Amino acid sequence: MARGIIRHLKRMYAPKHWMLDKLRGRWAPKPSAGPHKLRECMPLIVMLRERLKYALTYREVKMIVMQRLIKVDGKVRSDMFFPAGFMDVVQIEKTKENFRLLYNTKGRFTLHKIVKEEASYKLCRVKKVMRGPKGIPYAVTHDGRTLRYPDPDVKPNDTVRLDTESGKILDYVKFEPGNVVMISGGNNIGRVGVITHREKHPGSFEIVHIKDAVGHSFNTRLENVFVIGKGNKPWISLPKGNGIKLSVIEDRNNRLTK
Questions:
Q1: Is the pTM higher than 0.90?
Q2: Least CB-packed of 27, 42, 121, 162 within 10 Å?
Q3: Which helix (H) or strand (E) holds 52?
């Protein structure tokens, strides 16, 4: 017999990057179904209560979102369990704040503060390009959008710059060596570098080799790589540290010098 959907999430099994303390309650907020996966998102309640500290309790978060004060990608979201994810733009007009959700090099979401001009667009990674009814071409992006009539040059793994108000494609950048990328999954999550080489393995995972700004080379699977600009100029502002992973000793020295 089918059990139906599970509406609860135990705190112990909540994603680690939400950084919820395990002793303050048994339950964690379960994100609604939406554009990002449960383990790759941050619900608005975690964002407002744990990160931005605009609310102390569940009830206070509910009051904030029900006043329609929070916009994600230009749309008002009144569901406090709405899953915001990588590259989403969160706007709070009452405080005149705009944030972009990016990863830091420790794999945690960072609410990177951006200016109003930058909040008008977002980057989307193209997952597949297909033809729909009547042969209409469309692209599917990493955040579940369907974009009709993309440029014929846009292929899977490329990145498009999207106007959040109109939903139209403003520009695109190809997935090719020499372009700057951000890693959105795996062990090197949050790192920023330039593609040097792509290894093809038919029937297995393709591997991409990347070099960061300080000369460190690393590689990861193709599906973890998100192009963020042409050449070495990113189209978005980067969070603190510019996506350069520090060694344990460098990280410790940085903390001690503060």
A1: yes
A2: 27
A3: none
